[in-house]
From TrEMBL:
The lineage of its organism: Bacteria, Pseudomonadati, Bacteroidota, Bacteroidia, Bacteroidales. GO terms for molecular function: acyltransferase activity. It comes from Muribaculaceae bacterium Z82. Residues 200-318 form the Phthiocerol/phthiodiolone dimycocerosyl transferase C-terminal domain. PANTHER family: ALCOHOL O-ACETYLTRANSFERASE 1-RELATED. It catalyses: 2 a mycocerosyl-[mycocerosic acid synthase] + a phthiocerol = a dimycocerosyl phthiocerol + 2 holo-[mycocerosic acid synthase]; 2 a mycocerosyl-[mycocerosic acid synthase] + a phthiodiolone = a dimycocerosyl phthiodiolone + 2 holo-[mycocerosic acid synthase]; 2 a mycocerosyl-[mycocerosic acid synthase] + a phenolphthiocerol = a dimycocerosyl phenolphthiocerol + 2 holo-[mycocerosic acid synthase]. Keywords: Acyltransferase, Membrane, Transferase, Transmembrane, Transmembrane helix. Belongs to the acyltransferase PapA5 family. This is Phthiocerol/phthiodiolone dimycocerosyl transferase.
Length: 594
């Protein structure tokens, strides 16, 4: 079997890849309501055609030494009837494809992970899918024209290409208002709110602002109406994704956007909607200036390119990025995304009645698009009460705009509680273990270096265990990660104490078990095993030589086990060379280049 094509993650994809394995992942959902019930066979054939032109979407996430990367899936996933879990996590294992296509009656749904694309890039794939569908189903001519953009341009990492480190800069921070209320991330609510595009555009024009500014102002008014008096000095802060393709002349379908921020502190007065819309318009004009967008983009990429960050192990990066994600969420009140007017193509449009977009959320999100004369606001919320949503509907009614609200799905969200409880239990266990180690070291009068190394071993072990809980690995990965935890603890103990027992028995015996198991797996599964577990094989080979170093420094009392560990290492290396050296070489390029 030929080696699969692979891609480095872009800057945003690296950030979201830390969500891999979680139930709550950032996912876009594009939905088209067709004029007839969906034909599943035609939809599958259309998906096959769309993937041929957009292979960068048919990928799975793999783990390198320092970053995750994307690898082309071996086959196109099958279309499925719609699941009750809207925007459910797409990465559930190493073989998971990072998009799905579902259908329900007359609705076609495309869900795509933010790891591989943003809203604008996903729209290109969605347009291709619908064009292929109407061509297969109805024989519509020219509904899916040949792409004029090369695959290289589509799969380009535009963040890296346009990175200018000297133009990076920071944005000022403010005291931000956070929405209150009971949250249930395991059961988010999704709404589609439909308005007359012409009517909304007319109101915005009369105010002298753009439609996006009017919509943001309406959300601000809705949030303001739910704020306690004591919080009105805080700023309602909304982040607004801005497509960077036009600014840089990019045609990529991968992530390539910047963020504009809108701040509004209500204070004691209720300023009218029209004035707020003008404030928003002025801020958006300033925030979307090329220099401002480039400054924020370059800052994000500069962090990624930092040498110390680049050499940090992947499991440390994942934990750090998860923390950074929580901190970033604390800097905004809500998010408003807008894809503007959607054009599907002259041959496709007659077969589509509506287009709606949703996204997963940890709080409250809005995403807007317009198709024909229908302006659709996709609303995602984890709050038990929907006061802001109700206030938003009332705001439009006061403007004289009648809307139609639809509830999407039946409210049965993905089960996230078991993993959440496991992570919390692990965090509690880590704190208890750290306290116990500190107490033991202080009680024994241990050297500060021994204390520090012992605490570091506990932290490393907990990070590995967290990785196992979050990413739900298969049995070989669970075995390897458990071995690595034990090896890390043993080596930390050896480094801190110079214990002859650790050097003579513990480390060599652990290595021998892991090396012999891997040798048997290489003989049985050959290249397939090497391609799937190359990273762990490298760890094992490196650790297998540690007893040789201990032997050379005189830490080993009896050399037999140390020599046996080295011989097992050489045996595994020989088997890989004889049975799967080409596959290992290919995997090494991915592991260290990603």
């Amino acid at each position: 079997m030929a080696d699969a094509a692979w891609y480095r993650l872009d800057n945003v994809g690296k950030f979201y890849s830390s969500q891999a394995g979680r139930a709550q992942q950032t996912v876009f959902r594009f939905c088209a309501v067709m004029v007839d019930p969906v034909d599943p066979n035609a939809l599958q054939r259309a998906l096959d055609l769309a993937v041929e032109n957009h292979p960068g979407f048919n990928v799975r996430l793999r783990s390198g030494m320092f970053w995750h990367y994307l690898e082309t899936a071996q086959s196109t996933p099958a279309v499925q009837p719609e699941s009750p879990s809207i925007c459910a996590g797409l990465h559930t294992g190493s073989s998971s494809t990072l998009f799905r296509v579902t259908f329900l009656q007359d609705r076609i749904n495309l869900e795509v992970s933010h790891m591989i694309s943003d809203g604008r890039g996903t729209l290109e794939f969605f347009r291709e899918l619908l064009g292929a569908y109407v061509r297969v189903r109805y024989g519509a001519e020219d509904a899916s024209p040949s792409p004029a953009v090369s695959r290289e341009r589509r799969n380009e990492d535009s963040f890296t290409r346009h990175f200018e480190p000297e133009k990076a800069g920071k944005s000022p921070s403010r005291k931000v208002y956070h929405l209150r209320g009971w949250r249930d991330g395991s059961d988010p609510a999704f709404f589609e709110y439909h308005l007359s595009a012409g009517q909304v555009h007319g109101i915005a024009k009369a105010m002298g602002v753009r439609v996006t500014a009017l919509l943001i102002a309406a959300v601000i008014v809705a949030i303001r109406s739910t704020m306690p008096e004591s919080e009105r000095a805080r700023s309602i802060r909304m982040d607004v994704p801005v497509d960077l393709r036009a600014l840089f002349g990019s045609q990529t379908t991968r992530n390539f956007f910047g963020l504009a921020f809108v701040d509004y502190a209500p204070g004691s007065d209720d300023e009218p909607l029209e004035e707020i819309a003008r404030h928003v318009q002025a801020q958006m004009t300033s925030e979307t200036q090329p220099d401002a967008l480039k400054r924020r983009m370059n800052r994000m990429v500069k962090i990624e390119k930092n040498p110390l960050i680049r050499i940090a192990p992947l499991f440390v990066k994942d934990a750090a990025l998860s923390f950074a994600e929580r901190m970033a969420a604390r800097e905004v009140t809500t998010t408003m995304s807008s894809l503007g007017r959607i054009e599907l193509g002259g041959a496709t449009d007659p077969y589509v009645r509506e287009v709606n977009i949703l996204t997963s959320t940890r709080g409250l999100n809005f995403i807007v698009c317009t198709f024909d004369d229908v302006l659709s606001i996709g609303i995602s919320s984890v709050f038990a009460r929907h006061d802001v949503v109700e206030a938003l509907l009332a705001t439009f009614e006061q403007m004289g705009v009648e809307g139609r609200l639809s509830i999407v799905g039946d409210g049965e969200g993905p089960a996230v509680r078991p993993k959440r409880l496991a992570r919390r239990a692990l965090a509690a266990a880590a704190l208890v273990a750290l306290a116990a180690v500190l107490a033991l070291c202080v009680g024994c009068g241990a050297d500060p270096l021994v204390t520090a190394v012992s605490c570091a071993a506990v932290v490393l072990g907990c990070l590995f265990a967290r990785n196992i809980v979050v990413h739900s690995p298969d049995l070989p990965r669970t075995f390897e990660r458990s071995y690595l935890v034990l090896a890390a603890v043993s080596l930390a103990f050896l480094a801190a104490t110079g214990s002859p027992f650790a050097a003579t028995y513990a480390v060599p015996l652990l290595n021998m078990v892991a090396l012999l198991v891997n040798a048997a797996m290489v003989v049985r599964f050959r290249s397939d095993f090497v391609k799937a577990y190359a990273k762990y094989l490298l760890y094992d080979l490196a650790l297998g030589l540690v007893p040789l170093a201990a032997l050379a420094t005189g830490l080993v009392e009896q050399p037999a086990f140390a020599v046996a560990s080295v011989l097992c290492t050489l045996l595994l290396l020989l088997l890989i060379y004889l049975l799967a050296r080409k596959q290992l070489a290919g995997e090494l390029r991915k592991l260290f280049s990603a």
